[in-house]
Amino acid sequence: MDAQVTPLLERIDARERELGTAAEQLRTQIDELTARLRELDEEIENLAVTRKTLLALPPTAPEPTEEPPALPAHPAYQQILGTFAEAPGPKRARDLCQALDLPLTAKNIESIRHKLKRLVSLGVLAETEPGLFAQRRP
After folding, report:
1. More exposed terminus of the chain, fewer Cβ within 10 Å: N or C?
2. Contact at 8 Å (CB) between 96 and 80?
3. Residue 138 pLDDT more than 90?
4. Which neighbouring-strand residues pair with 125?
């Protein structure tokens, strides 16, 4: 063979090997992508079946909502709750008398304590320890 043709043939052989390797790598990638696409299609199909199943279920009854207790009509109850809203935290009847600018007499303290106990019985307040009242948390 001619000395000029041999290097050219070697270059062609090398290029054929490069292209063959690249083609094989692409075939491998195509196989991997095809498998991944098949997995995604199956997952999409499963989600569609799940959606269809859920939509076919009968509706559930809504959970009953607990209505807030009816407060006594006397404005003192609103004032007491307003005091808890302004300065949250546990309070004693004496603290509320001071906050409501009531004279610290036994009659006023007992009246407020009675109202606090009533709010506890209605579920609006909680008596965290004897004589100490706090707002209930949802």
Report:
1. C
2. yes
3. no
4. 135
The token duo for 85 is 């809203």
CA-CA distances (angstroms) from residue 79 to 24, 33, 52, 54, 132? Answer: 83, 70, 54, 49, 17
Residue position matching structure tokens 């991944």: 36
- pLDDT tens digits, one per residue of 104-126: 899 989 999 999 999 888 888 88
Element of type H or E holding 35: helix 5-56
**Residue 22 to residues 3, 30, 31, 136: CA-CA distances in angstroms?**
30, 12, 14, 72
Dihedral class, residue 100 (left if φ above 0, else alpha if ψ from -120 to 50, else beta): alpha
Tokens of 115: 């109202």
Record the tokens describing residue 108, joined without a space: 């006023």
Token couple for 102: 């009531």
Q: 44: pLDDT confidence band, cut at 50, 70 and 90?
A: very high
At 110 the pLDDT is 93
